[in-house]
Amino acid sequence: MSTKEHDFIAIGGGSGGFNAARVARQYSDNVAIVDGAKELGGLCILRGCMPSKTLIYSAEVLHLAQQAEKFGLHIPEARVDMKALHDRKVATIKEFSDYRVESMESGKYHLYRNFCKFVGEDTIELDDGTRLKGKRFIVATGSRVSAPPIPGIDNPGIWTSDDVLELSELPESVVVLGGGVVACELAQFLNRIGSKTTQIQRSPHILKDQAPDVSEVVEDVFRKEGIDLYTNTSLTRIDKTSTGFTVVFESDGQEISCAANHVVNALGRIPATDSLGLESAGIKLKSNGQIVTDEYQRTTNHKVYAAGDCAGPFEIVHTAVLQGEFSAYHAFGKQKPPLNYGHMLDVVFTDPQVARVGLTRAELERRSIDFIVADYPFDDHGKSILMEAKQGFVRLFGEHPSGKILGAEIVSKDAGELIHTLSVAVSHGLTAASLLQTHWYHPTLSEIISYPLEDIVDALDE
Q1: Which of the chain's termini has less CB crowding within 10 Å, N or C?
Q2: Could you tell me the end-to-end alpha-carbon distance of the chain, in angstroms, rounded to an integer?
Q3: Is the sign of the CA dihedral 322, 327, 332, 336 positive or negative?
């Protein structure tokens, strides 16, 4: 049995693994990437961020065209062309995936198109029997769709997000199970392109990790757009029928049955680590299945790092990239400050979008930090009114008495773009007073941020 040796081995060629290998390549010409997936590129490029946002943006353009009368326009008909929509997505994603594949196959890396498992603390075995010994590893194998213990969830034909992203024909009716980011983005997409859409969420609110009033803004829009949204439910079973499926659930003490041609399981994802033989390398897992890591991204085997969905604490692409890069720097003795998760940034690409950065109200209270909260609604803001984008608000948390911006929440049109001003403020410790020295152009969406900034400054002066 042959054994090959490498200075750094990335298990998984997605955002975390590839970027770790890219940094490692700066310090060694003996870097390997192990990825047995049918296609190279990782979840974000192939089945996550890029394809979903490509489709979501097209659906937003369609929605605006269908709302033409609000803008004084006459557009007789606006409807989806599913084949053209699919073809555009494929062509767009191909640009990204081709670049990633070209980079991995450039000769800079030893690329193994295999699955693998640990057989020791510094050795993995590929599925062809080859063994690789590494001085350092990173596990970045991502996540996969989970199947909670609901009778019928394993029925053949139940879709995952992968299936929705590959649609080339318009489904007549769909039930989306779940209320997380993926479920919400896909439910609104399906509804906007013309599918009769029902969404069933177990918790009292969709986007349950957000502030309740943030979630309520999105819930209100979903219902006004025609989504049959049920929250605070208990799923009973999923029955296969001659025309599709029937989902049975309890809501407000009543049993409800909902029939549709298709069901999407968007009830969450779990770390893809169960086939890696981690126990053979002395690598421990958390109770949720994610890999235990320290502040340096090291696992309980300090020769092995972990990044991305399989490690947490956030399943967000830019976090996986930062974790992967940081791991590689640390593995080669380059000193970098550990990642500050108190500066965390996340975005939900519903319409209105939801964006958040820094510490939440709950976390500020948990840490007993004295703070001021100020918010302002978009229905009293010039640019959002003329854009017919009046739903939502911006909310800032300022430290007392310094006025330093500790966190922010925005639910609005293009909140994912607006939040970055506040991300800079949180990461660099800027105060409300210092941000007010900035020119805020009128009329812009960004200008609304100056209003709660003024409220924080006024509160500090009282």
Answers
A1: C
A2: 76
A3: positive
Enclosing H/E stretch for 92: helix 82-104
**CA 416 to mean position of chain CA atoms:** 12
The amino acid at residue 88 is R
Q: Give the neighbor-by-neighbor strand order of the sheet with 245-251.
A: 233-240, 245-251, 254-260
Token representation of residue 288: 């949720």
Which of the four pLDDT bands, split at 50, 70 and 90, describes residue 332?
very high
Q: 96 pLDDT band (50/70/90 cuts)?
A: confident
Rounded CA separation 423/399 (Å): 15
3-state secondary structure 125-159: EECCCCEEEEEEEEECCCEEECCCCCCCCCCCCCE
Cα–Cα distance for residue pair 252/194, rounded to 1 Å = 29
DSSP letter at 407 equals: E
β-sheet bridge partners, residue 177: 200, 265
In degrees and rounded to multiples of 5, residue 31 shows phi and psi of -115, 135
How many secondary structure helices (H) and strands (E) does the chain include? 13, 21
Q: Give 417-434 pLDDT, tens digit per residue.
A: 999 999 999 999 999 999
Nearest to 268, CA basis, from 378, 356, 143:
143
Half-sphere exposure of 243 (CA within 13 A, CB side): 10
What are the residue ranges of helices labelled H in 333-378? 361-366
Report in angstroms the alpha-carbon separations of 28 from 7, 19, 24, 277, 305. 7, 14, 6, 27, 17
| Confidence bin at 378 (pLDDT 50/70/90) | very high
Give the C-alpha separation, 382 to 71, whole Å: 15
Residues near 130 by Cβ (< 8 Å), separated by ≥ 6?
1, 2, 3, 4, 112, 114
Q: Decide: 161 and 31 in contact? Cβ < 8 Å.
A: no
Burial 71-84 (b: 16+ CB within 10 A, else e): eeeeeeeeeeeeee
**What SS3 state is found at 285?**
strand
Can you tell me the distance from the alpha carbon of 187 to that of 346, in angstroms, rounded to the nearest whole number?
19
- Which residue reads 């318009």 in tokens? 170
pLDDT band at 118, cuts 50/70/90? very high
Q: Which domains does the chain have, with CATH numbers?
A: 3-145+270-339 (3.50.50.60), 161-267 (3.50.50.60), 342-461 (3.30.390.30)
Predicted TM-score (pTM) of the model is: 0.95
Look at residue 372 and give its three-state secondary structure: strand
User: In sequence order, what are the beta bridge partners of 4?
Assistant: 132
